[in-house]
Amino acid sequence: MDVGQALRALAEASADDVGRLLLHASRAVTGAVLVELHARGYDDVRPSHAAVVAQLDEDGTHMAELARRTGTTRQAVAASVRDLVAGGYVTTAADPADARASIVRLTPRGADLCHAAAGVLHQGTATWGQALDDDGLAHLRSQLARLAAAADTPTVRGS
């Protein structure tokens, strides 16, 4: 098989691939959320930041746990946390039980970001509801939940 045939075969196989469609939809949602957050003054927030903030516990979370939850490396989480600290969204402190470990906590500005993001997500869901109608959106949610439950597969770190 030559290179052209191989590329055409891949293009045909991926044209309506569910995973690719889900990835495209996810990127569209993430992009729309970030555009709106930037318009609301949170112009320093990136997707990697949102992933970290979304995994924080109310009383704070260890960096190692954030890495596990986000499926990324500790170094990647540390870089995002540094940015979030610089933006005033989170603080870090040594864990009193283990000085080698850092706990990341949300600040009031970070809480404001969470409220803004929640509002934007609700608006996006309403838009999808108009495009699909309420029954279509409910069906999509149900099917995506089934897919997520069935896909209990470990992820590759850093992907």
Which SSEs are present, and which pair or pack?
Elements: H1 3-14, H2 18-39, H3 47-53, E1 61-62, H4 63-70, H5 74-86, E2 90-95, E3 98-106, H6 108-132, H7 134-150
Antiparallel strand pairs: 1-3, 2-3
Helix pairs in contact: 2-6, 4-5, 6-7
Indicate the proportion of strand residues. 5-15%
The count of DSSP E runs of length 2 or more, i.e. the number of strands, is 3
Note poorly predicted spans: none
Looking across the biggest beta sheet, what order are the strands in? 1-3-2
Helix content: 55-70%
Task: Please name the fourth-level CATH homologous superfamily.
Answer: Winged helix-like DNA-binding domain superfamily/Winged helix DNA-binding domain
Encode the helix/strand succession as letters. HHHEHHEEHH
Structural category is mainly alpha
CATH class: Mainly Alpha
Separation, N- and C-terminal Cα atoms? 29 Å
- Number of helical segments? 7
As for the number of domains, it is: 1
Give a structural overview.
The protein has 159 residues and is mainly α. The chain has a single domain (15-150), classed as Arc Repressor Mutant, subunit A. Helix content is 65%, strand content 11%. The chain has helices at residues 3-14, 18-39, 47-53, 63-70, 74-86, 108-132, 134-150; strands at residues 61-62, 90-95, 98-106. The chain has a three-stranded antiparallel β-sheet with strand order 1-3-2.
